[in-house]
Amino acid sequence: MRRRQGARPRAVHIPGNAVVLAGCLPGLAAVTALALCAHGVDQSVTAARDTHALAARVPAPHTAPRPAVLPRTVWADPGEAPGKQPPPRYDDSVVAVFVHHTDTPNAYRCEDVPQIIRDLYAGQTGARDFDDIGYNFLVDRCGTIYEGRAGGVDRPVTGAHTLGFNHRSTGIAAIGTFTAGAEVPRVMTDAIAALSAWKLGTSGTDPRATVRLVSSNSLSRFAAGTAAVLPTLAGHGDGYMTRCPGAALTARLPEIRDLAARLQGRP
Question: What is the pTM of this model?
Answer without folding.
Answer: 0.78
